[in-house]
Amino acid sequence: NVNAESARVYGLDLDASLHFSDTWRVATALHLVRGRREQLAPDGNELTLPQDHIPPPYGNTSLSWADGPWELSLRLRYQLTKQVRDYAVVEIFGNATDGYTFDRTGTADNLDLTPLASDGPLNYTGAYAWWTANLYAEYTLNEHFTFRLKGENLLDRHYRTFGSGVSAAGVDIGVGVMARF
After folding, report:
1. CB 51 within 8 Å of CB 88
2. What tens digit of pLDDT does each residue of 143-169 get?
3. Please, which residues have CB within 8 angstroms of residue 59's CB and are 6 or more apart in sequence?
4. Which of 8, 20, 132, 175 is 20 to 30 A distant from 101 in Cα terms?
């Protein structure tokens, strides 16, 4: 492992909601992060490379209705693509004259846990974009009891959150009761 000469991490969190009546609301949250670091190549040149631990843009958008004891919500969760060129570099080979090649496997970004392309061995694709559709319902019976129902990933989409080698759950249905005394 080699420490970077310097690094910059910057981003934007966007949260917005619009209440277009007493009962209807649209809300969204989008998170964008970017990171670059300066790292010395074997020939002594300083290169600007992607910083590790930087997720692709992700967020959620919801349409909600609430009236009296009822609250219903349709929420879309999503993550955009992270290209291989945006993954951190663990080792640099070559020089400025002949060109550089980068080893991007073995970093905290887990490029080696992304799918393989069909055009050759160990040719990783990077993180795919994905989205899920989720429904939530809540009924407040009284000041003591609230009943909840959720349906997540209703279209049974296959996805992995960034940096994870584990595929997320398929359709997830849940029922709950909240009691307050």
Report:
1. yes
2. 999 999 999 999 999 998 888 878 898
3. 14, 28, 29, 30, 31, 77, 78
4. 8
